[in-house]
Amino acid sequence: MAVKGMNLGSVCCLVLYFVAAVLAGRDFYKILGVSKSASVRDIKKAYRKLALQLHPDRNPDDPTAADKFADLGSAYEVLSDDEKRKQYDAYGEDGLKEGHHGSHNDIFSSFFGDFGFMFGGNRQGQQDRNIPRGNDIVLDLEVTLEEVYSGNFVEVVRNKPVAKEAPGKRKCNCRQEMRTTQLGPGRFQMTQEVVCDECPNIKLVNEERTLEVEIEQGVRDEMEYPFIGEGEPHIDGEPGDLRFRIKVMKHPVFERRGDDLYTNVTISLVEALVGFEMDITHLDGHTVHIERDKITKPGARLWKKGEGLPNFDNNNIRGSLIVSFDIEFPQTQLDDNQKEGVRGILKQSSVQKVYNGLQGY
Amino acid sequence: MGFIYTLRVLIKSILVLILWSKCEGRESEFNYVTCGSLVKLLNTRHNVRLHSHDVKYGSGSGQQSVTGVESADDANSYWRIRGKPDGTCQRGVPIRCGQAVRITHMTTGRNLHTHHFSSPLSNNQEVSAFGENGEGDDLDVWRVQCDGSIWERDEAVRFKHVGTDAFLSVTGEQYGNPIQGQREVHGMSTANQNNYWKAMEGVFILPSQEPLRHHHEEL
């Protein structure tokens, strides 16, 4: 009897547990594919990547696409906000029900622009011919090499004129047409006339919203990030686009060539002859250790694999860091004793080879 | 039972109220013009926006002309606020009052510029757009004059040229064809109501966090 009761009891408990687990809310960390300790930047990166993959327009055959996309939006909205994230970590999704404002469309368009769901930035070809477009805006965004190495997000406030309906009508689609008027029986005259259609009146109102552009790791100079529909409006048509054009700034220590980084180190003559040990501080603060115990010739290069920039297409592949050495000779002249000493220590016979150094040797 | 129920409802509604008040939708409270931002500058006295285009002056220096236009939706009215060539202006940092900046025309890449040439309509100092790809010369630098410490977006400021001490101004003279109705923009030596400008539409860059410094655990 007791056993049967216990079984029933445990079954009930199990059922209750599952019900609670289901009702307790979604696992936002799992939806975004990030760990519980992910930084806000990691969360933004994950959202951006998944939003492009899971958008319902991209998955027309999947009946659950809209739900998955909505889940993604909710997950981002909670985890990207410090306070909401704290409440979620403590109380689960129940702890913040009713707090969902700012529709998913707002979040999505702050990363991709108003008509972001038109993927690839191309409007439908047919519409291009018929619908006039406002001007595009291209903004040069200067980024540091540190940002190219580690990635970053830049928030901007876009204040733009938006076409809103106003009372009354206005003339639109004005064109020249030939009109035939009858002057008399059998006599006609053809004149050119300006003919316009009537359209609803439009006025321009300034609106503001926040956009977010990602500086992806390994981004190259002149790459562009478009925000569809965030350009200048067109009274008779669609707004143009806002494009951020990346401009990578020069760095005082590192020079970029593709995914490789080049840098120069000046060492003393003594260090060049007897060896040395040093650390180079990299773009994200970690140090690259260099140790030499042999003679270092001027112009010598050291290749450090994996210490370059992350490749844009695959962040796991990195270029190399190439360190070139030049020698600083002693400033003071040697006296006769020191000169003898040097001759004795180095035991290098006189060379004095004369040749044309400019044609290669 | 009933008491606990009403208590829970009360708590939940308080929670709702708190959360609701926190998410009014993302209004931007960022009110400054920052380095690297793209703006349209409105002359507050004559209600025209600073504008340039691929049309050269027919007199004076013969350089690219700078005018004031009435329309609010022309992409040729966008200018980028940049620092001096020595690179002291960091992206996203608000421009301070008294700071020297370069104002670069977005579509043509030329800098707002003035020099000792006469303007065509009013015989004031000609203001042109000069340079290539954002690089011009020493006469491209202007000082932002405002009250307070930082250039705020809803504040009217003056631009005083470093080199000739002229203020960027509009006094209302209008051009004929091919730029019908556009106003002359020139430099004048006196500070008055004609040299006030306000940042209107644009793309305002907010300051970024430093990219994370992390140590590779994989190594």
Short description:
Chain A is an alpha+beta fold. Chain A contains 10 helices and 11 strands. Chain A has helices at 2-23, 28-32, 40-54, 65-79, 82-91, 104-112, 125-130, 145-150, 269-274, 336-346; strands at residues 137-143, 152-184, 187-215, 224-227, 242-248, 255-257, 260-268, 276-281, 287-292, 301-304, 321-328.
What does this structure look like?
Chain A: This is DnaJ homolog subfamily B member 11. Chain A: It comes from Oncorhynchus mykiss (Rainbow trout). Chain A: Residues 1-24 form the signal peptide. Chain A: Residues 27-92 form the J domain. The complex is a heterodimer of chains A (361) and B (219). By secondary structure, chain A is of the alpha+beta class. Chain A folds into three domains: 24-93, DnaJ domain (Helix Hairpins), CATH 1.10.287.110; 137-248, Sandwich (HSP40/DNAj peptide-binding domain), CATH 2.60.260.20; 255-333, Sandwich (HSP40/DNAj peptide-binding domain), CATH 2.60.260. In chain A, 29% of the residues lie in helices and 32% in strands. Chain A is built from ten helices and eleven strands. In chain A, strand 6 and strand 7 (260-268) form a beta hairpin. The longest helix of chain A has 22 residues, at 2-23. In chain A, 24% of the residues are buried. Residues 119-127 of chain A have low confidence and may be disordered. Chain B has one helix at residues 2-22, and strands at 38-43, 48-56, 64-69, 79-82, 100-105, 111-118, 125-130, 141-145, 158-161, 167-174, 183-188, 197-205. In chain B, strands 1, 2, 3, 4, 5, 6, 7, 8, 9, 10, 11 and 12 form a twelve-stranded antiparallel β-sheet that branches. In chain B, a hairpin with a 7-residue loop joins strand 2 and strand 3 (64-69). Chain B is elongated, with a radius of gyration of 23 Å. Classes of the chains: A alpha+beta (361), B mainly beta (219). Chains A and B meet through strand 1, helix 8, strand 2 and strand 3 of A and helix 1 and strand 12 of B.
